[in-house]
Target: HicB-like antitoxin of toxin-antitoxin system domain-containing protein
Amino acid sequence: MKQKRSKVLEYNVIFTAETEGGYSVIVPDLPGCISQGDTFEKAKKNIKEAIELYLEDADPELYHVSPAESRKQFIAPIQVSVA
Model:
């Protein structure tokens, strides 16, 4: 029996702490792929599941981002002075 090989994909996600508690999470590379959780760990688990479900129906040529490609993108704070 042939064993199915799986790819390891990696996506940057953005966690936002909500004022009422918990976290919302978005995946910039997967439009509309969002989730949330009452704790950081729950939000992390939920977004992983959301990505897996998103990719089940996605065109494989569009959304397969390798870990090396994912690491080329990052978020960093920039301070700007305004008058």
Observations:
- The chain has a mean pLDDT of 85.
- The first strand starts at residue 14 and ends at 17.
- The longest helix spans residues 40-57.
